[in-house]
Every structure is written in structure tokens, then in C-alpha cells.
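PROTEIN DATA CARD
Card holder: Centromere protein P
Chain length: 190
Origin: Nestor notabilis
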Amino acid sequence: MDSNVCQVYEDEIHSLEEEIKLLAEKYEDSQQESTFFSDEEILMSIKSFQRELRGESEGYESPSDLKAHLETLETDLSFLMKFTGIQFTSHSKKTLEKTRNRTVRKHRLSGNCHSLSFQLEFQLLEMQSKANVSAVITDLSIIMEPGGDSDLSKFVSSAEERGSLLTFFRSLSSYAEWYEHRRCTFLHFK
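Structure generated from the sequence above:
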């Protein structure tokens, strides 16, 4: 057999092994997440899902009302993306710990703001008391595309230390807008 053909088969086997490994990890994550829920919570979720399938979702008289509400939400999201310039391209979350009144989830977000790409990773600690729920962001890690301004790097480090997502997104939106204006201006003079 030709060595090139063998190499192609070996590469294919390797890629399939990697895919199996990723699927096994995903399966373990989903199994781990499902073990955090009690039988009662699972049954309530199933009943809620069945009501939605039958068009009996709370607050909506018919599937057309639900569809109209969804279209409104999509319009609002589109407006916010145009207004802020922030577009999320991916999001994943993984439950790390769940107890009766405390939940820790790990979130990963990636997206872009105007022409700047970003990736975020953080843990969200949700604590529930009798009256309310509070959430705290911990372990915030922000990755911006290379070649950024040193002031941007300082700002990102500061946002990571404080764990302030709101400040990060507000400042990123403003910075990215002006960054785009500067880039276009310099291109004009070249």
C-alpha cells in the first residue's frame, strides 16, 4: 500500500479519535450537569416543556403570540447590536457546582465589537436567599486580538482585576468605535 494512502488513513483515524474524545467530554459534562438537578426539578422541567409544545406556555395565548414575542426580542437584539457594535459569536456555559442555595457556572463568550475581537471566560457565583438572588463574577479572563494599544491592555487588566463586565463592555464599545474611525482615517491618508 502506498505510504501516502496510509498517512491519509492514519490522519482520518486520528481526527475521528479526537472527535470521539470531544464527544465523550461533552457527554460527561451533560451527565454531570444533569446530576445536579433533583428528580422534582427534572419533572417540573419536563412538564413545562410539554406545556410549551402544546402551546400552553404561560402568558401566550397561541403559538403566533409566542412567535410575535420572539420577533420583538430579535428586533431588540438587533437594535442593541447596532447601537453598541457588540456581536456575540459563541457562548458556552458549564455548571461546576450546584447546591440548594449556591450555583457556580463557568461561562465562555466570544465575539467582536466593530473590528476588534474578544474572548471572555469567567465564573458566575449565584447565591439565593429567601428574598433575592445575588450574582458575583469571579476569575474573569479577557483575551483581545493581538496588536492592540497598550492603553487597551492596561484597561483589560484593570477590568479583569475588578471583575466588571459592564465597565468592560461600555468601554470596549466606545474604544472600538473610535478605533474604527482612526483606522479609516489613516487608510484614507495612505
